[in-house]
Write a structure and sequence with these properties.
The protein is about 30% helix and about 20% strand. With about 650 residues, the protein is an alpha+beta fold. The radius of gyration is 25 Å and the shape is globular. The two termini are about 45 Å apart.
Length: about 650
């Protein structure tokens, strides 16, 4: 059980400001009159103490209070170009940012939870004793902003007034970080005091790029103080390590859901999107997938795209499962984004009208950003994160595999801005989980019970991706949230079971698994390519929309419900104008029983310590049914044999 506000508050201890009187005196001494007047709008004393202590610790030459006005946004963007943190591209409103070569993804080995004695964290996380972190932060963040401007912004992680929205303060000397914050989050400067009072908590994030030199990257740290809901990051610029309102605060939101609102809230690593079905009805999905596993592509298939990354969820009084997107923008991996698979996003990236920050892509001599998999002819030359590049450059890809695009979601053609701004949230009727699985699970399967749905989420596996520096191999990725769950995963499992099993949730969602990564090689075909392609996602989600609304039936199997061939054949024809031979259906949906049983054995072993018996009951039931089916029909069972 996490205890909040326990142990030394490191920010306050280093800053040394203990009273609101001391804070106001510092503000009067250090802030220009205009920004002193701006800060007067913020009356929450805890927030003012956080800002004062950040100032005292970092010692900036100047402090800029960001109100979220158009003038402030333009100023930050202009300063980012003047400082060289960004550079202009050929299309107006498009800019380019390069991170250091050593700072191209989440620094897993340099990211720590600050812990109190006997505080438990996830077995997959790194932790550091509070006194050790305290000393390191004091040494390296003390005076780190001398000669720089400190920018302070006030944001809401979700629509203002939404039950699960949580306010946050972003403090940074990086204009690129603050520019990104304005594209990704709702500035709530005028509503901040009321939002803190409503929610009863806020998050604080303090960052400085420091010297921004490669030789200092080994000193970089990303710290998360769960007890005081404060993050620290320094000597880094990659947004996943610096804009900690995103995954840093996502961790805090997960803590809040687990330990303050257990059974009534969840904080998830999920897209939110709406699919239009017969008669114009819209069915909303929330879906989890580890980084690099198609989550953004899946989200944008929807006719009513809401968000591609995070979801704050709760049980409403009417018994529905509601969700809001804590973000208003996209910080998405751009590799393999192209016209065929991502037409809405490509329009933003290739035409004027959207404000976009490209990071770690290649820029050609005409100022056009290029990336691996963009579907266009290879450029003859350009500059990327490593310097000058040509197709003959060995060992360096055209763009980094974790290169990104940052833009407001409202500029994407199928985004539903009105719904994304609604504090009452979206009723979620379908939950999906997916990873990277070449040989085991079919493209779609639907859980028969809520506990079985939780078991799908608890059993995600994925190959490591370029989003994590130094990671490799095949990893378990429960709920795709594993890297962002600070507490023990058994606590998170219990929270999931309590949430979806809560009797107050009277309108239960469909819970399903998705798998886009089956290969010909693993299913008896020739070659190592995938059995499907990107655009097939329209069909998989389309079938789930129909099944949720009881317009199609399904085949019962030991692992859950799978589609019938004729329904999929019609959907392939109507949605993407593609033939779907029954031979391909058989390859994709046959049960390879030994593979599935081996996967269950893997998960049982992984969850062996302290996990809920409810999970093992699902595994036991499925395994017994699979073995009985094998005894009756053999090790590979075609779906037609079960229909």
């Amino acid at each position: 059980m996490l205890e909040f506000k326990q142990g030394v508050d490191i920010l306050s201890a280093i800053g040394g400001i203990t009273t609101i009187g001391e804070a106001k005196k510092l503000f009067e001494q250090r802030l220009e009159p205009e920004h002193l007047q701006r800060l007067a709008t913020i009356t929450n004393e805890d927030a003012l103490l956080k800002i004062a202590n950040a100032m005292a610790m970092c010692a900036p030459d100047r402090v800029y209070i960001h109100t979220g006005s158009a003038e402030d946004r333009d100023y930050v963007r202009r300063m980012s170009l003047e400082k060289g943190e960004e550079r202009p591209l050929s299309i107006p409103g498009h800019t380019l940012h390069f991170d250091l070569p050593e700072d191209q993804g989440r620094m897993v080995d340099q990211t720590f939870y600050i812990v109190n004695p006997d505080e438990k964290v996830s077995s997959l996380a790194k932790k550091e004793a509070r006194e050790v972190s305290h000393a390191y932060i004091k040494e390296h963040m003390g005076g780190i902003m001398r000669g720089k401007t400190m920018y302070v912004g006030f944001y809401s992680r979700g629509p203002v007034g939404a039950k699960a929205s949580i306010p946050a303060i972003e403090i940074s000397s990086s204009t690129y970080v603050m520019h990104s914050a304005e594209l990704l989050y709702r500035n709530c400067y005028t509503d901040f005091n009321a939002e803190v009072a409503r929610r009863g908590e806020f998050f604080t994030n303090v960052h400085s790029e420091g010297t921004n030199r490669s030789e200092d990257v080994p000193k970089a740290r990303i710290y998360m103080d769960r007890s005081w809901q404060t993050t620290f990051s320094f000597f880094c610029t990659y947004a996943g390590n610096t804009l900690l309102m995103k995954k840093g605060n996502h961790r805090f939101a997960s803590d809040s859901a687990m330990y303050k609102y257990n059974g009534t809230e969840l904080s998830e690593h999920m897209f939110i999107t709406g699919m239009t079905g017969p008669g114009g009805r819209v069915t909303y999905f929330a879906g989890a997938a580890p980084s690099g596993c198609g989550k953004t592509t899946t989200a944008m298939v929807g006719s009513n795209f809401i968000g591609d990354d995070l979801a704050q969820m709760w049980i409403e009084a009417d018994g529905t499962l509601r969700a809001v997107n804590p973000e208003i923008g996209i910080f998405g991996i751009i590799e393999d984004v192209n016209q065929e698979g991502d037409p809405y996003l490509m329009k933003c990236l290739r035409q004027p009208g959207a404000e976009v920050i490209f990071s770690n892509v290649l820029v050609d001599p005409q100022g056009k950003p290029r990336w691996t998999g963009d579907g266009e002819p290879l450029p003859e030359q350009g500059t990327n994160f490593q310097g000058a590049w040509t197709p003959a450059t060995t060992g360096v890809p055209m763009s980094h595999p974790n290169s990104r695009c940052t833009l407001k979601a409202e500029t994407v053609g199928n985004h539903n801005k009105k719904v994304n701004a609604d504090p009452s949230g979206i009723v979620i009727e379908v939950i999906t989980y997916s990873g990277r699985d070449s040989n085991t699970m079919p493209p779609i399967w639907v859980a028969r019970t809520m506990d079985a749905g939780v078991a799908i989420g608890a059993s995600i596996v994925s190959k490591a991706t370029a989003a994590e520096i130094g990671a490799s191999g095949v990893n378990r990725q429960p709920w795709a949230n594993t890297p962002f769950v600070a507490g023990p995963l058994t606590d998170y499992l219990e929270a999931q079971l309590n949430f979806y099993g809560n009797p107050k949730m009277t309108r239960k969602p469909i819970m399903a698994g998705l798998n886009y990564f089956l290969t010909h090689e693993a299913r008896g075909g020739s070659g190592k390519g995938l059995l499907g392609e990107k655009r097939d996602v329209h069909v998989w989600l389309g079938w789930l929309e129909l099944f949720t609304n009881r317009d199609v039936e399904a085949i019962e199997t030991p692992i859950g419900m799978i589609p019938k061939y004729e329904d999929l054949r019609r959907l392939f024809a109507s949605k993407i104008n593609k033939e779907y031979p029954e031979s391909l259906y058989t390859m994709q949906f046959s049960l390879y029983i030994d593979n599935i049983v081996a996967r269950i054995d893997l998960q049982e072993a992984a969850w062996s310590k302290g996990a809920s018996p409810r999970l093992f009951a699902i595994y036991k039931e499925q395994k017994a049914a699979l073995l009985a089916l094998k005894a009756a029909k053999g090790g590979i069972v075609a779906p037609q044999e079960l229909a």
